[in-house]
Automatic annotation (TrEMBL):
Keywords: NAD, Oxidoreductase, Tricarboxylic acid cycle. It comes from Cellulomonas shaoxiangyii. InterPro entries: L-lactate/malate_DH, Lactate/malate_DH_C, Lactate/malate_DH_N, Lactate_DH/Glyco_Ohase_4_C, Malate_DH_AS, Malate_DH_type2, NAD(P)-bd_dom_sf. NAD(+) binds at G12, A13, A14, G15, Q16, I17, G18, N106, Q113, V130, G131, N132. Catalyzes the reversible oxidation of malate to oxaloacetate. Signal peptide: none annotated. It catalyses: (S)-malate + NAD(+) = oxaloacetate + NADH + H(+). Pfam families: Ldh_1_C, Ldh_1_N. This is Malate dehydrogenase. Belongs to the LDH/MDH superfamily. MDH type 2 family. Its EC number is 1.1.1.37.
Length: 329
């Protein structure tokens, strides 16, 4: 029996991440080889023509799973019946900025989009916010969607998670598939806490394999946390293909699950886990099963980890206060 197509909406579809993302979605890498996809591309009016050009290229790939493409500048139309919403469209930072500096420029995008999702999305909608500052933009979107379960709104820290895996591979020579239980806690910002205390490499403690606390504290953590700025410095533009790759990973894991014995990292709406105030969108260690993320419970946090998580969560609280002051929630 033919499977009906999933509606996947990508905002900012004519941007750099959109260009790296849409072709992977249409080829089946997001939802798997058995699910046809109907793509909805949302753009602001000046970029609709560029989105049309991207759609022409998508057509020219003749992807068997691509059921059709709609292009619109209207959020209500973009999110009508949507199953997977990828909220990418937002301004990227430039050299010298922190992601939080984008709040006033970008925050206003996510309330109306949350409201449009609330009004028209499919019952099983899953939302991934990529546009920065991603955690707080997801908080804004969720606040405007009271009828959508809060656990359907997530923010992307999978890129940070993948960066942590890559740094650990470089340091130890381990295969990526042998590295497990790495965690990104907190905000997708320089305050994030990439945590190796629970991580294993080939079943052994990653900290034991590395055997160099100073490297973890002074090299690993800042390299992962400041990787976005390093890419901007080197490339003259913020990361795009690796961000699109992480978005594909995030949704694929959400839908298809985490491997036995492992977990990933995602920004999810806190229910008070690990002392993170309820309602904030914070990155946690999460497993995925049955199409839902669950925060890994009962991990022991040492003093250093506790302090790092608290510092990043304090920044999320500040961002929440800022969006309240701006009248965005
Ligand atoms: N969470 C993460 O790990 C990462 C997040 N990002 C963020 O993703 C966002 C997008 O980055 P790029 O694609 O490089 O930027 P870009 O500037 O190349 O593209 C953004 C696109 O969004 C569109 N747009 C702006 N307002 C919109 C609206 N209201 N509705 C629909 N579309 C709208 C623009 O017309 C543009 O085409 C930025 O905020 C960037 O900082 C980037 C990398 C990683
Ligand atoms: O750093 C930036 O502005 C873009 C981003 O979020 C990342 O690369 O992690």
């Amino acid at each position: 029996m033919p499977v009906s197509p999933a509606v996947v909406t990508v905002t900012g579809a004519a941007g750099q991440i959109g260009y790296a993302l849409l072709f992977r979605i249409a080829s089946g890498q997001l939802l798997g080889p058995d699910t046809p996809v109907r793509l909805r591309m949302l753009e602001i009016p000046p970029a609709v023509k560029a989105a049309e050009g991207v759609a022409m290229e998508l057509d020219d790939c003749a992807f068997p799973l691509l059921d059709g493409i709609d292009i619109t500048d209207d959020a209500t139309a973009a999110f009508d019946g949507v199953n997977v919403a990828l909220l990418v469209g937002a301004r990227p930072r430039t050299a010298g900025m922190e992601r939080g500096d984008l709040l006033s420029a970008n925050g206003g995008i996510f309330g109306p989009q949350g409201a449009a999702i609330n009004a028209g999305a499919a019952d099983d909608v899953r939302v991934l916010v990529v546009g920065n500052p991603a955690n707080t933009n997801a908080f804004i979107a969720a606040a405007h969607a009271p009828d959508v379960p809060a656990d359907r709104f997530t923010a992307m820290t999978r890129l940070d998670h993948n960066r942590a895996l890559a740094q650990l591979r470089q340091r130890t020579g381990a295969a990526i598939d042998d590295i497990r239980r790495v965690t990104i806690w907190g905000n997708h910002s320089a305050t994030q806490y990439p945590d190796l205390t629970q991580a294993t490499i080939g079943g052994r403690s990653a900290l034991g394999v590395v055997d160099d606390q100073a490297w973890v504290r002074d090299t690993f953590i800042p390299t992962v946390a400041k990787r976005g700025a390093a890419i901007i410095e080197a490339r003259g533009a913020s990361s795009a293909a690796s961000a699109a790759n992480a978005a594909v990973d995030h949704v694929h894991t959400w839908v298809h699950g985490t491997p036995e014995g492992d977990w990933t990292s995602a920004g999810v709406v806190s229910r008070g886990e690990y002392g993170v105030p309820e309602g904030l969108v914070s990155s946690f260690p999460v497993t995925a099963s049955g199409g839902a993320f669950t925060v890994v419970p009962d991990l022991e946090l040492d003093e250093f980890s506790r302090a790092r998580i608290d510092a990043s969560v304090a920044e999320l609280v500040e961002e929440r206060e800022a969006v309240r002051a701006l009248g965005l929630v």
